[in-house]
Amino acid sequence: MELDCEGCAGCCVDWRPLDPAAAGSDRTGPRPPLDDVYDLAPLTRDEVARFVDDGLGDALIPRLFEPAERDDSVRIDGVDLAAVDGRPVFVVGLRKPSKPVAPIGTDEPRWLDACAFLDPTTLQCRVHGSDRYPDTCASYPGHNLDLGAETECERVEAAGGGDRLLDDAPPDDLPSPAFGPQALGATVFAYPDPDALDGVVARLRDGAATAADRARFAGAAVGSRPGSLSVNRERMADAREGAREADSWVGAAIREWTDRAGDDGDPVGLDADARARLVREVEADAGAPGTPGWD
Name one Pfam family in it (predicted). Predict the structure, then answer.
C-alpha cells in the first residue's frame, strides 16, 4: 500500500460541498449513524483512554446508530437506536470543526469540517507518528483494499484530485477491523445507563452536544471491558470526569473555529499569508503541535 497524501486530506475533511457526487458517505452501511459527520474514525478503548489521560478528552465525540433490520433497539428522545441487551451501542471518534482548508487540489480555501488534529495550512495530522495517532488512521485504506471496497483515495482521484492510491496491495499487518465480532468493548461500546441519556441523544442528533454529553460516552468507553458488556464503574467515572474537565488547545481551537466559520463550502476570503496567520493564532499559539511539512 503506497499513497500520495500531499495536498489531499480527503479522509480527514468533509469535502462533500466541493463535489457531492464524488464524495462518499457514512450512511452506506446497515446501521446509519445518528450524526452526519464525514468519515468519523473509530478509536479503540485504549486510544480513548490515552486522549483522556493526556488532557485531550475535549477532542472526542461519540457516534450512535439507527438500528438495522432485526437489530435490538432502544428508544430515547423519540429516536430508535441500535442496541445490545437494551443498551445503545456507540463508537468514539475525533471532533471535526469547520476549518479554512484547501484540500484535494482546490485553489481557494473554503470552510469545511475537518479533523480537530488536521493542520489547515499543511494538511498534515498534528499527531501523525505519535502514540496518539489512531490505528484506524494509520491503517487506512488497508481494510478497504482487503475487502475490495472503494477508498477515499479513489474517490479523490475520480474527482480530479490527482494520483493518490499508488499501490493497492493491502498491508500484511492490518489490525482487527473496527466492526466485527471482536469489537464489542474494544471499539464498539454499549452505554450502560440508557435512562440517563434523556436529552443527550437529541443534542447529539442535532449537533448540539455539550462537554458533559461527550464525556459520558468517553467515560463509558474507557470503562468497558473488551469482549463483554461489563463496565468498570470506577474507571468509567474517572474517565468521564477527566474528559468533562479537559480544556486543551483542541477545545479552544474548536470554539474559535466555530465562532469564525462561514457556511459549509463558503470561500474563506483570505490570502495565503492571512490564512497562515489565522491558523497560527487559533491553533499553534494555543499549543497545537507542529507538522513537518512535505518533502
Answer: DUF7531
pLDDT in tens, 235-244: 999 999 999 9
- Using CA atoms, how far residue 119 sits from 12, 127, 128, 289, in Å, is 10, 10, 11, 9
Residue 275 zone, left/alpha/beta (φ > 0; ψ -120 to 50; rest): alpha
Match 441519556 to its residue by C-alpha cell. Answer: 197
Where b means 16+ CB within 10 Å and e means fewer, 115-144 reads: bbbbbbbbbbbbbbeeebebbbbebbbbbb
C-alpha cell at 288: 497545537
User: Taking a C-beta distance cutoff of 8 angstroms, is the pair 134, 117 a contact?
Assistant: no
Which residues, in sequence order, are CB contacts of 244 under 8 Å at separation 6+?
57, 211, 212, 215
Contacts of 194 (CB under 8 A, 6+ apart): 74, 76, 83, 86, 87, 88
The length of the chain, given as a count of residues:
295
Cell of 280: 497560527
240: cell is 468521564
